[in-house]
Design a protein that fits this description.
By secondary structure, the protein is an alpha/beta fold. The protein has 2 domains: 73 residues, Ribosomal Protein L25, Chain P (Beta Barrel), CATH 2.40.240; 159 residues, Alpha/beta knot (3-Layer(aba) Sandwich). The chain is 31% helix and 26% strand. The protein has 7 helices and 14 strands. The strands form 2 sheets. Strands 7, 8, 9, 10, 11, 12, 13 and 14 form an 8-stranded parallel β-sheet that branches. Strands 1, 2, 3, 4, 5 and 6 form a 6-stranded mixed β-sheet that branches. It starts with 8 loop residues before the first strand and ends with a helix.
């Protein structure tokens, strides 16, 4: 059986090992039976960062109950270090784009940041975590990005590890070209974070605040004004390609 022959992957936080009988949640059972139209005997994959990815047949599949007997390790567990993404939340659908694409691009932490121009409303951490989980199931990741509690810009900077470079997307054009910033300040993608501001950008006092820490580097993403979700994708893709 080839690696790609099993298309259904579900995250399972508990231990995975040969012969283990894994009980799935009611929501997962509903998804497998009613959405994917699978049947008992069909093979699916379960994964987590510690134990890797395992596959096995569905021993039981009912409306609210499903069990898998895992029998084949497809990939061992492995660390998946990656950049952090701090961003001002947007409206629901656009925040979902950021969460999904950041997960696909290997982000290790998602940090919602409330700025003066943030218009996204209340941050639903559980919804963001669920969106990240679904994206991880689709993109062959083993790990899930951590979703941090929302914080102010001042709180973000106060708690930021000084050894981790923070690349600040500056739509005013005052930063380094992102390729130059990456080549001159980063050794690998796990050494950094990216900060994407709100629609309308950072206020002048926020830009001044960001100029104080030595770990901040202002970056320029090109001659056009990008939407926040586009800027996040561009920056993460550049880091992934150039480190």
């Amino acid at each position: 059986m080839t690696f790609n022959s099993i298309r259904t992957r579900l995250y399972h936080p508990g231990p995975l090992q040969a012969g283990a009988e894994i009980s799935l949640s009611a929501d997962q059972a509903h998804f497998l039976g009613n959405v994917l139209r699978l049947h008992a005997g069909d093979r699916i994959a379960l994964f987590n960062a510690d134990d890797g990815e395992w596959s096995g047949p569905l021993a039981v599949l009912k409306k609210r109950n499903a069990e898998v007997v895992v029998d084949d390790q497809r990939r061992p567990g492995a660390p998946e270090p990656g950049p952090w993404l701090a961003f001002a939340p947007l409206k629901k659908a656009r925040t979902q784009i950021i969460v999904e694409k950041a997960t696909e691009l290997g982000v290790a932490r998602l940090l919602p940041v409330i700025t003066a121009n943030t218009i996204g409303g209340r941050v639903n951490e559980q919804r963001m975590a669920a969106q990240a989980l679904e994206a991880a199931e689709q993109c062959e990741r083993l790990s899930l990005p951590e979703v941090a509690a929302p914080q102010t810009l001042a709180q973000l900077l106060a708690g930021w590890p000084s050894a981790r470079r923070l690349l600040v997307a500056d739509e005013t054009g005052g930063g380094m070209a992102i390729a130059d910033a990456i080549s001159s300040t980063l050794k690998n993608s796990a050494d950094c974070g990216i900060l994407i501001g709100p629609e309308g950008g950072f206020r002048a006092d926020e830009l001044e605040l960001l100029k104080v820490p030595e770990f901040c580097t202002f970056i320029d993403l090109g001659p056009r004004i990008l939407r926040a979700e586009t800027a996040a994708i561009v920056a993460l893709a550049c880091i992934g390609a150039l480190t």
